Amino acid sequence: MRVSELVVVSGVPLATVKYYLREGLLMPGAASSATQSEYGEEHVRRLALIKALAGAGLPINRIRTIVGLVDTPADTVFETLGRALAALPPYAAEAGGPDEYPRARAVLERLGQVYDPTYPAVAQLERALAAAEDVGIPMTSERLDAYAPHVRAIAEVDLQLMPTDSVASAVEYAVLGTVIYEPVLAALRRLAHQDLGAGMFADRTFDTVATPDPHEQDDQ
Amino acid sequence: MRVSELVVVSGVPLATVKYYLREGLLMPGAASSATQSEYGEEHVRRLALIKALAGAGLPINRIRTIVGLVDTPADTVFETLGRALAALPPYAAEAGGPDEYPRARAVLERLGQVYDPTYPAVAQLERALAAAEDVGIPMTSERLDAYAPHVRAIAEVDLQLMPTDSVASAVEYAVLGTVIYEPVLAALRRLAHQDLGAGMFADRTFDTVATPDPHEQDDQ
Lengths: 220, 220
Known about the structure:
2 copies of one chain form a homodimer.
Chain A: H1 3-10, H2 14-22, E1 30-31, E2 37-38, H3 41-55, H4 60-71, H5 77-85, H6 102-111, H7 120-134, H8 141-160, H9 167-201, H10 206-209, H11 214-219
Helix pairs in contact in A: 4-5, 4-9, 5-9, 6-7
């Protein structure tokens, strides 16, 4: 197809297609004349990936990292997917050294998980745990031990459903599945709270669940 | 304590404390003279809540809704917590009618959950499911059935650990626990992927996991 058709099929404006071509994110078409190129399914697929990543908030240099790994994978599947996933938001201001992230490391060691201390999700976990501590709901061993098997089971589902027919399919699934399913899972958790709460609290007032507040007693 | 001490203890600047007093988010202190007020633990606690909610991205009118429910709860625990939780981000551009959110409703009906169709998490789930569909990884019944019991189990942990000693404790826990633990759970999922991937893919190249890509075959 010509570039005009690629614009229609992909839903990406011509100026943006040209920008992605200049930036090397989209591979060139096959020259069909001095002024025209021919594009195919691989271009449609690549534009869909770029569009989805841009929509998820990735800056152009991070998108380049991911499409680069689709075109030239690292030595192993693990390293290819790991590098692609490390390009996802949220981004920390700066990466910490190996002795940092004490909260995240304590959690990962309690769980006995293999982890790369420079992997961005470690810094992300550290910030999230520090925020929980700040608001007075720190991660306790009780909460961690109760959450962990279920988080792991969800991650197992993700890996079981990963397509392995090509590098492109695997990388696309890993990066998009990671970012796109986070809000799905967050919304499902909020709705599970509502369903469970309806069962536990529907007709109850605070008088029937609450014991006296020690703060209020202090004032009496 | 005087307002100057409240500033030190809470870590909230004086101008901001005054702003919260004017806006009615922070309850007035007890007048100890014509020009001075006396503040206590309830003011420290309220400032911590406001600070945490502002840090989570809530605008002032949404924070007012939540502190209003702490001071004047609705008739039941369920309604009080539901209204407080409905004030949390992310915010949709506009609420949909009862016939909207077809994807979210299909999911909730498959799960057999009680839900309020006007609850913001329904719109949030709809947007997240539409995004997953757009990038070619739609929620399937297989994925939903595999995720759902684990999401529910996580939500059960959240409710089991909820303090019920006072309205303030319950509301604070519900709103902060919901928003603050979403990034914790997201980071734990990413790290579980890494741990599981290390076991499955550590030494494997794409040649050993991949079957021929039909797209690549087309080109040959």
